[in-house]
Write a structure and sequence with these properties.
Blueprint lengths: L10 H11 L3 H18 L12 E7 L5 H17 L4 E9 L2 E8 L5 H13 L13 E5 L18 H16 L15 E7 L1 H6 L7 H8 L1 E10 L2 E9 L4 H5 L2 E5 L2 E4 L4 E7 L14 E4 L4 E4 L11 E4 L2 E4 L4 E4 L2 E3 L7 H16 L1 H12 L2 E2 L1 H4 L4 H4 L2 H6 L5 H17 L6 E6 L6 H4 L9 E6 L5 H13 L3 E8 L2 H14 L7 H22 L5 E7 L7 E3 L1 H5 L6 H18 L8 H7 L10 E3 L42 H6 L20
Parallel strand pairs: 17-19, 18-19, 18-20, 20-21
Antiparallel strand pairs: 1-3, 1-4, 2-3, 2-23, 5-10, 6-7, 8-9, 11-12, 13-14, 15-16, 21-22
Helix pairs in contact: 9-14, 16-18, 17-20, 18-20
């Protein structure tokens, strides 16, 4: 019996026929199965694989130098050396008065120890090139795993900061002994310090000066081994001096001689043994945690409140800086000045608030004409002529016009819901900046009785809760539509909007706070109002921009962010990667990058320069230079003689007409006290 002919078959058919008739085919199949089984058994597997991204901070100082000088003499030469190291992917540098910081990031997968060794050796071999006055570099390796897993807060109404820190230090020593604990850090509290408060009059009366006291105290606070005495086959060690242990020991130090008698430090100074001057504070508060109702259990959420705003004050260099207090211009229109604005920004903020308050009804008519029933403070900013003039002005005045716009949103919301009829619907579009709320909700069914669409973020729980309560009091139904987008995608959307869209810039710190807080606030509001008859919530996953997928509350609870700091780090890397990829595009300027990084740790620097380079090693071209004035919260920049005048604080229309309200009050005391009060 002859074999069937395969001449009519193609190449694939002839190969298949060959394997069908071959006796090797079963062996090949068995070998493939065994190889696959071996791969499953032998290949390493991890539920959470470790991603190696070596990062190193290199810090140098040059006391007395300006930001420009240390940039030219230390930062730039150091960058050129570091770019010579193989495996380096990005270099970011920050220069300020007397200090320079260079952050080196290696490629993903590079060995951290080998990368650190290469960087250290490169710098060490070039120590001879360090300019006069520049300190040797301080090298600190960093890792993406450097995040705290446990935070312990010690608080007490009975014990002071000094006692609490001592107790925390003892706990810290115990925790360090736990296996696999890498690093612990103590924050807040007061270290023990003996403070010597000199009396200038008493010093002068004894012909002493403060400068001469320092070497006296240093000499007294020493202990030396003077030698030994050997006798009778025994040796006795002789030590001279002793360390100062108590305030009494410090007071007994002889600091001079006057009129033939010794002068003790206690005679010319007040000596206090206690805590040092505070340089940092830890705030602690209690609140009701949000609990997500579900059938499987409860998910406890952090009660983060309103991120970025401490109640009452915050600390800058150990000095309490009061936060701006709310300002009511007319009844129902109250705004809180944005902290840390420059003088020019503050004037724009006050001017915009005054323009809105001068005729709120006219502003409401103009807003409805342009934006219908969609209430969004980004739209309200368009009512400011200074903001809406050009794309550049939108980038420049995005922060300055934010708070007055928010106050108008609150006023407009109250005005609208107060006139609502029972059964009218108020929609809340929730989600962080750049989540694509507008595009994600375009295809949703339309409600016939929608009187208002709050196109915001639901970041502030207190403010959102007041809106919800007020809407329910007026008989309205509420629908929350939460739109989620991955944080890197949201950052790129914000950047694209700033460059190709309206030009509006949202500071990265504010956006990170929003993406962290909004899902928490949403779940808390669901817990509080979920049982209300007129309440409905819809969760949309907008990971594929413009094509959202419906999810549930359990999914949302599982996609909460770990911390604002983590979002800031990822956001900064995302921004700088985008700018590095567009080094030839002048729209991606250092000024725009600085606006995004405002109040994320760079706003108060004297000079910030991102070392953006292409593959050929050349620096980025185009775009205006970056200049940041040093200022803290509550301070303004500009010339020293400039300040806000009374005219800057008068509503615009009143200033034009020369009129307004004058409020007078009486005070207790004599006539000469009126000027002081």
């Amino acid at each position: 019996m002859s074999e069937p002919s395969t001449s009519h078959l193609g190449i694939a058919g002839r190969i298949a026929a060959m394997f069908i008739d071959s006796k090797l085919t079963p062996l090949i199949v068995i070998a493939s199965v065994l190889l696959g089984a071996a791969a499953v058994v032998l290949l390493p597997r991890e539920e959470e694989p470790q991603i190696k991204v070596p990062m190193v901070d290199v810090m140098v100082s040059m006391p007395g130098s300006s930001a420009k000088e240390i940039e030219e003499r230390a930062t730039r030469p150091m960058e050129k050396l570091l770019w010579e190291i193989s495996g380096v992917e990005y270099i970011y540098s920050t220069s300020r008065d007397s200090e320079s910081l260079v952050i080196v990031r290696f490629k993903v997968g590079e060995d951290p120890e080998r990368s650190l060794f290469k960087l250290t050796e490169k710098l060490r071999s070039n120590f001879d090139r360090i300019p006069m006055g520049v300190t040797p570099p301080l090298i600190k390796p960093k890792s993406i795993d450097d995040v705290p897993i446990l935070a312990l807060t010690f608080h007490s109404a009975r014990y002071d900061h000094l006692t609490l820190r001592r107790l925390a230090a003892q706990v810290d020593e115990s925790i360090k002994q736990v296996p696999l604990v890498a690093e612990t850090t103590l924050l807040g509290g007061s270290r023990r310090a003996v403070r010597v408060m000199l009396d200038p009059v008493k010093l002068a009366s004894r012909n002493l000066s403060p400068a001469g006291l320092v070497p006296m105290l240093q000499q007294a606070n020493r202990q030396f081994r003077a030698g030994g005495l050997t006798t009778g086959n025994n040796e006795v060690l002789v030590e001279t001096g002793a360390f100062l242990k108590t305030a009494e020991d410090v007071g007994n130090v002889v600091i001079g001689v006057f009129s033939g008698r010794p002068v003790y430090l206690r005679e010319v100074a007040e000596i206090v043994d206690g805590g040092e001057e505070p340089t940092q504070y830890v705030f602690y508060g209690r609140g009701r945690s949000g609990i997500l109702p579900d059938t499987s259990g409860t998910g406890i959420l952090p009660d983060a409140g309103d991120p970025g705003r401490m109640p009452g004050s915050h600390e800058t260099g150990g000095t309490p800086v009061p936060l701006p207090q709310p300002i009511t211009i007319v009844e129902g229109f109250t705004y809180t000045p944005y902290p840390g604005l420059s003088l020019e920004e503050r004037r724009i903020e006050v001017k915009f608030a005054a323009e809105l308050a001068a005729d709120l009804e006219a502003a409401a008519v103009e807003y409805k004409r342009r934006f219908a029933n969609v209430l969004d403070r980004n739209n309200v900013q368009e009512l400011s002529p200074d903001y809406a003039a050009t794309r550049e002005s939108r980038q420049k005045w995005s922060i300055a016009t934010l708070e007055p716009a928010g106050a108008f949103v609150d006023w407009m919301f109250e005005k609208t819901v107060s006139a609502a009829r029972p059964g009218d619907v108020v929609l809340f579009n929730a989600g962080g900046q750049g989540s694509g709320k507008t595009t994600a909700t375009e295809g949703l069914p339309k409600h016939e009785r929608v009187i208002l669409i709050m196109d915001g973020t639901l970041q502030n729980h207190r403010r959102s809760r007041e809106h919800f309560q007020r809407a329910f009091e007026c008989g309205c139904a509420l629908e929350v539509r939460y739109i989620h987008a991955p944080w890197p995608l949201a950052v790129r959307n914000m950047l694209k909007r700033a460059i190709e869209g309206t030009g509006r810039v949202v500071p990265l710190s504010r956006a990170a706070n929003g993406h962290y807080q909004v899902p928490i606030t949403t779940l808390r509001l669901v817990e509080e109002f979920g049982e209300h008859k007129g309440f409905r919530i819809l969760v949309l996953n907008n990971f594929n921009h413009g094509y959202p997928i419906k999810e549930n509350l359990e999914w949302l609870a599982g996609h909460l962010h770990n911390s604002v700091d983590e979002l800031l780090k990822i956001g900064e890397l995302t921004l700088k990667e985008e700018f590095n990829e567009h080094t030839r595009n002048t729209a991606y300027s250092d000024r725009l990058l600085a606006q995004f990084l405002a109040q994320a740790g760079y706003r108060d620097c004297a000079s910030l320069r991102s070392a953006r380079r292409g593959h050929d090693g050349t620096a980025a071209q185009g775009g205006p230079g970056l200049e940041c004035a040093e200022r803290g919260a509550g301070q303004v920049s500009g010339h020293a003689e400039e300040s806000l005048t009374s005219a800057d604080l008068i509503p615009a229309e009143a200033a034009k007409q020369g009129g307004g309200k004058i409020i007078m009050a009486t005070v207790k005391g004599d006539v000469h006290d009126i000027g002081k009060n």
